[in-house]
Design a protein that fits this description.
This protein is of the alpha+beta class and about 350 residues long. The chain contains 11 helices and 18 strands. Bound molecules: adenosine-5'-triphosphate and magnesium ion (MG).
Length: about 350
Amino acid sequence: MTDFGVDLGSARTVIVSGKQVLLNEPSVIAIETHTGEPVAFGQEAYEMIGRTPDRITALCPIERGVIADYDVVELLAKHFLSKVSANRMLKPRVMVSMPSGVTAVQHRSVIDAFTAAGARNVCMIEAPVAAAIGNDVDFTSPRGTIIVDVGAGTTDVAVLSMGGLAKCESARVAGCDFDDAITRYVRKECNVLIGPRTAENIKKTIGCVTERPFELAMTAKGRNLFTGLPQAFEITASQVCTAVADTANAICKAVQSVLENTPPELIGDIITDGVLLSGNGSLIRGFDEYLAHYTHIKVRRAPEPKLCVAFGTGRALRNMDLLKNGDYAFRTLQDLAIE
Ligand SMILES: Nc1ncnc2c1ncn2[C@@H]1O[C@H](COP(=O)(O)OP(=O)(O)OP(=O)(O)O)[C@@H](O)[C@H]1O
Ligand SMILES: [Mg+2]
């Protein structure tokens, strides 16, 4: 059990071994501002976001699916790997999922970070390919399958056929853009400034992209922009629906753009089988219906929207045959230098 499948997400990191989830924590780290020494990781660091004193900074080092701060990701990877490794002597092989279309530099930085964190070698796999494997989708036959993975920072859309990516796009619009849209709306309509965790909480509690049959409302807290004083305010589900409409549209547009470039034979298969929707960002109420209405294709949600990508990496690790039609291999930094 020295091999790990890792979904290194902008919001959460999941590590699996076989079918066992060993870690599922926010990709957040809190560091001492002056020394760069880590103070807290994962859930503990997440609780600190927006609440730290000057000497501590809480960071999300994965932005839009890729490494934004290499040193910090190395610290995070080291902590997470040591947390799940029972045997510190054996170096693990690691299969990491990333958005489709990462550059060679981004690819290298992931291998770099995990090697420094103690991995023997690293294989990268695109998140939609991992989601397909995690959902037992047979994508090795000459038949088109479309996967839409809505994460926190990126929406990955991929058409898979014969074990590879026929068409893919990684759009920089996803779950955190719903939060930003809610923050902007509240600022404009209620003159109140709210933090990112409050916006996310509003989205998860009453958020929706299609009107609800019954109106819902909740109370949230922020700072009044005119008086500078704390203020509690009420926000309704239909207000949230208005706030997030443009973001939901932008995600659907990314799906449309992949469909536009997909060969017609594969489109025929996709119409029959429908879209498979994964990623926690897609959990906002009504998004499946909204996407189905927009694309005129039926949409089905993955039973485990977030875990399926990590499970896919774990399964691919044990059955590399699934990946034989793509350029997937366990690489070390030396291998990259030779290539
Ligand atoms: N119940 C929910 N309703 C709506 N949104 C949710 C819900 N639960 C989580 N989310 C959102 O899902 C997003 C995180 O999704 P996920 O964990 O799949 O992203 P990630 O894999 O870390 O990111 P990425 O794939 O972009 O790198 C966050 O924006 C979070 O607010
Ligand atoms: Mg993801």
